[in-house]
Amino acid sequence: MKIVLVGYMGSGKSTIGKMLAKKLGIAFIDLDEYIEESEDMGIPKIFKTKGEVYFRKKEYEYLGEILNDQKNFVLSTGGGTPCYGENMNAINKATSNVFYLQVTIAALIERLALEKAERPLIANIPDRELPDFIGKHLFERSFFYAKAKHTINSNGKEVGTLVTEIQGLL
Ligand code: S3P
């Protein structure tokens, strides 16, 4: 079974994906970690030394590798993965178990303010400008996230509740 989680940075894809994979007894793959291991470099350094275009190219390649080569997994994608090139089509072609974890802007701002450093797209945005940035960015990206077969309203729900909800839709 192939399961793919999409959603904005800080929407809980990795936390939920790990628990879901454990419950289903299948592999958990974090696309960001897969890229970092394959490239032998952290994401912030890839952005800094090679640039975002290089990162997006690699993200596309490794996404395809995982979707084609592996059979049973929960894949947590990066926040931007669905929004570039053919990525979302490739995901939807590989499986119908695609879940968009929808979270309010307020919750994202709260979480991301604490976790900015490891995310190059927001690392240099002053805290006071973060709400505006996230609001606009999420608005642009929602178009792509909405292509997921399932939208999970994740607001105020425990991780365990969300995992059970997703399991019920498989
Ligand atoms: C990105 C999100 C990050 C990572 C990279 C770019 C984005 O993943 O792929 O920093 O474009 O939103 P997370 O969603 O796991 O933070």
UniProtKB/TrEMBL annotation:
Pfam families: SKI. Binds 1 Mg(2+) ion per subunit. Substrate binds at residues 32, 56, 79, 141. It catalyses: shikimate + ATP = 3-phosphoshikimate + ADP + H(+). Mg(2+) binds at residue 14. Keywords: Amino-acid biosynthesis, Aromatic amino acid biosynthesis, ATP-binding, Cytoplasm, Kinase, Magnesium, Metal-binding, Nucleotide-binding, Transferase. It comes from the Bacteria. Its main location: cytoplasm. Its cofactor is Mg(2+). It is found in: Cytoplasm. Signal peptide: none annotated. Its EC number is 2.7.1.71. This is Shikimate kinase. It comes from Maribacter arenosus. The gene is aroK.
